[in-house]
Please model this.
Amino acid sequence: MAAVRTSLTIAAMNTTSASTSSALPRIAVLATGGTIAGAAPDATNTSGYQAGVVGVGQLLAAVPSLASVANVQAEQVASVDSKDMTLALWTKLAQRVNALLASDEIDGVVITHGTDTLEETAYLLHLTVKGDKPVVLTAAMRPSSALSADGPLNLLNAVTVAGKAEAKGQGVLVAFNNRIHSARDVVKTSTYAVDAFQSPEIGALGWVQDGRVEFQRGVVRPHTLATPFVIGDAWPVVEVVTSYAGVSRVAIDALVAAGVQGIVVAGTGNGSIHSAMQTALAEAAATGVAVVRSSRVGSGHVMHNGAAADDALGFVTAGALNPYKARVLLMLALAAGLTTAAALQQVFDRY
Ligand code: SIN
Model:
């Protein structure tokens, strides 16, 4: 019988119990906080709770069936509400995942995370961690104290996926509400529903249910080992702005004055930008600020308009990446020393 092994010290490999089953995959669970680790004063409260207050040991103890799918060792990397995710914590998490992937003692990694910025962390790791072992993020929409809390099953499913050979080489995955998504495609689409994550237009990669994992398609774009991106401590400053009726150029001028290296625009429709804002962005691009057009719509692509428009203005287009994922890719590309619009466009077309 396998035992759940836990360590409550930050980023430590110390364990509190040791019996394992050699037949089972060895999965490291890294806890970062979120609603999955949230607690409310009573079981019917699913909005007035505190995220990230329940430790990883308690999360694992709530899922005894984990012992039959994996030998789990756990670490409390952080205890945050993911709205407060920081660049420093991203660095720490990615470095820890890289260390675990390099270890002969570990077959896969699961990360518990808040839902609010999960898609950003997942895409960051998809582009920067180096290994082909499964890395699976999961989360919950209801706190651990809730009636019908969704965290325990999501955690069990994530560990199940991380232990499967079919999950190798697929980049970073998100297991949520029985679905398996690619980190590149997945977005949060509901403020409250337990099926809060979708991969708009393209759909999930597969599903996990009752211990069975089935992939319906693979991941086509390069990721993990096949990217030039590495995690470091230096993060270029990139901000996101939105275009809307009546918007002015004030935000753009303020960002340029503050010295940002990049601006991602959540444009209307096919990434269109109010003319007042567009003029300011073109001026910013001319001074060397990287400008990326994405869309606030939530699905679809932002098409590159070529010589007549984007190239003349110095703009890069984000394709199917939403503004927040476009920001992740732009930060990594700038950190890798890519600065021209042409070089950045190649990155957006590829990753
Ligand atoms: C968070 O993102 O940490 C809080 C919200 C959630 O996990 O659903």
Q: What stands out?
A: The first helix runs from residue 56 to 61. Confidence is low (pLDDT under 50) at residues 1-18. Residues 4-226 form a domain with the Rossmann fold fold (CATH 3.40.50.1170).
